[in-house]
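Lecture notes, unit on binding sites. The following record was shown on slide 14. It pairs a sequence with adenosine-5'-diphosphate.
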Amino acid sequence: MFTLGVDIGSTTAKAVILQDGKDIVASSIIVATVGTSGVQRAVEDVLKQTNLTLSDIEATVATGYGRQTYDDADYQVSELSCHAIGAHFVFPSVRTVIDIGGQDAKVLALNEQGQLDNFVMNDKCAAGTGRFLDVMANILNLKIDDLEVEAAKAQHPAQISSTCTVFAESEVISQLANGTDIADVVAGICNSVATRVASLARRVGIREEVCMTGGVANNGGVRHALEHELGVTIAYDEKAQLMGALGASIYAFKKSLNK
Ligand code: ADP
């Protein structure tokens, strides 16, 4: 049985096709803002990879900020639940999920069964989200994937003290003007995101095992800075950005079994 999960985020659209609720047979990440054709492109991509059509899909669950914009879904489920399901599937002992996406950051507390117990969220401010990193990468003329490599080269990470993205942008520009090494600036930027998210995480309380989901999890600079801030090891899987879509696909499978 094939099930489809689509996760329509602020910045990217993700799709995962699962076979029998356990094997990922296709996945896609399209960088496109909610409200555009991103989700259709992600779905077309996973269908093409598997030679399936929508009629072969037993059930579809849409999740994410833009889940209401996808008409072909059988169910719509919050991204909190889907990230919890996806993270529990990949890391069965996980109790804290730190999800940093393009426009918000969330920290989820799970019980031993992997169900959501509690959460805190920052969706009011770009600092501590992928948006902050996108803005900074743009100023530094770096690709988002390069931030990790640069941060790893830092000798003396710069202090980025502004908590506001707009002020932090000026701060970064003045650091560069003063001759601060780019690697040190990038490490300072990663530390700044980690500090913001760590204070969110402390509000919910950290229970181990901890994992990261969402696109920013792909940045080792932020991951390691968060590990340092929180004093825990953070589990990471290369499917981190797909965790919501994966959880949605698992949810679709469970619903199909109970039909
Ligand atoms: P959403 O679901 O809100 O669309 P995602 O979880 O897909 O967000 O994450 C998108 C964010 O992930 C973007 O802001 C992007 O900058 C960030 N991102 C993706 N890959 C990396 C990377 N290698 N390093 C840092 N940030 C990354």
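Take-home: The chain has two domains: 1-91+242-259, 93-236.
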